[in-house]
Write a structure and sequence with these properties.
The complex is a heterodimer of chains A (209) and B (153). Chain A is α+β, with helices and mostly antiparallel strands and 209 residues long. Helices cover 50% and strands 22% of the residues of chain A. Chain A has helices at 52-70, 112-127, 136-150, 153-180, 183-208; strands at residues 4-10, 13-20, 34-42, 48-50, 76-78, 82-86, 91-96, 106-111. In chain A, strand 3 (34-42) and strand 4 (48-50) form a beta hairpin. The longest helix of chain A has 28 residues, at 153-180. The chains are: A alpha+beta (209), B mainly alpha (153).
């Protein structure tokens, strides 16, 4: 059976989707609902290809990584299949790991322009009505999950505990002082001191006279 | 927006015609209305605190998003010029020169933030980030991405 091919191009990147329509749903012959293979071709770089499961992982990685970049977060994404990290603000280091034991990981370094082309190709693919929309919902959920992963419990506790402890100790000390403070005694002391002052002043006037 | 205006020489007119096309006339009726809203930026020489409303903020993001869609080939070329700076520095240098000219013309250069934008050692990173953000926010979901980023900013 002849398979359908769809190509999404953007400057230095081409993204090819190969698959079949879902005939059980009476779909158009040109439609691709069952993706069997995909190829990501970048000029001057090795070909990246895989099956449907790999596609969702790769797209997830690129979208999450680009969101980290946009939001000025630590630009690093790691999964079983792909790692992407920012080398400096100019290059992105992609490490593709094969599921097969004998195959060595493939390292590709790309610039900002190529990264934006890849995302643009994925965007074209996502918005195309000729191919089944694979993973937008999955991506949103995973974005939240990966963002949650960034929150390290120990980090949060190290940030929150010192000010909380200091506020709590201040509260305890002030409340202890409030209960121990004897207002009546203070008033009596003041009256006694004032009477002493008056008698001293009368004595001093008498000596002057 | 200043990054987009650096690329498009008729930036103000383009923004206004785009707002008409997007039917944002009720929020942004004139070029002056756009200019007034942009003056909310405290780094500008002519800064006025207008208390920008949410619908005005959204309209400006919509404009920036649509403009970045139109200008994507140029944005990409500038990024590529920076990637291959040794081979092809002219596009990047021209962009950077025009950006600093606009900053000097419109921004309060005594401010520390503006000084950072003009510092040749520091502004590369800022410019690349703003160009890359515009390039990555090109899809149907780009408007939401850009909005989220600017709200968190």
């Amino acid at each position: 059976m002849l398979q359908n091919k769809l190509l999404f191009n953007q400057s230095s990147v081409s993204f090819e989707i190969i698959g079949l329509p879902d005939y059980s749903n009476d779909e158009n012959k040109e439609q691709i609902s069952i993706i069997s293979q995909w190829k990501l071709m970048i000029i001057d770089k090795p070909l990246i290809e895989g099956n449907f499961e790999h596609l969702s992982s790769i797209m997830e990685a690129f979208y999450n990584y680009s969101n980290f970049l946009i939001n000025n977060e630590i630009a690093f994404y790691q999964s079983n299949l792909i790692d992407i990290r920012l080398d400096n603000f100019l290059t992105h280091n992609i490490l593709l790991k094969s599921a097969k034991k004998d195959v060595k990981p493939l390292n590709i370094i790309i610039g900002n322009s190529v990264l934006s082309d890849i995302i643009n190709c994925f965007d074209q693919f996502n918005s195309s009505n000729k191919v089944r929309n694979v993973n937008l919902k999955l991506l949103k959920n995973n974005q939240k999950k990966s963002l949650l992963k960034l929150f390290n419990k120990s980090k949060i506790s190290s940030i929150l505990f010192p000010p909380l402890i200091s506020i709590f100790s201040l509260f305890i000390f002030s409340s202890i002082y409030f209960y121990l403070y004897d207002a009546d005694g203070y008033k009596e002391k003041n009256v006694f001191l004032n009477s002493l002052k008056i008698s001293h002043s009368i004595n001093s006037i008498n000596t002057i006279l | 927006m200043l990054t987009l205006e650096t690329i498009d020489l008729n930036g103000i007119q383009s923004l206004y015609s785009l707002s008409n096309r997007l039917k944002l006339n009720n929020i942004l009726p004139t070029e002056i209305a756009i200019w007034k809203l942009r003056n909310n930026n405290p780094m500008r020489k002519s800064h006025i605190n207008n208390n920008i409303k949410l619908k005005e903020f959204d309209a400006l993001i919509k404009l920036a998003f649509e403009m970045s869609k139109y200008l994507y080939p140029y944005i990409r070329n500038i990024l590529q010029s920076r990637d291959d700076f040794e081979k092809n520095p002219s596009i990047w240098n021209d962009f950077k020169k025009r950006f600093t000219e606009l900053i000097n013309e419109r921004f309060n250069v005594d401010s520390m933030k503006v000084k950072k934008l003009l510092d040749p050692k520091e502004n590369d990173k800022i410019l690349i980030h703003s160009l890359l953000t515009l390039a990555l926010c090109n899809s149907d979901e780009g408007y939401q991405k850009l909005r989220n980023y600017l709200i968190d900013f």
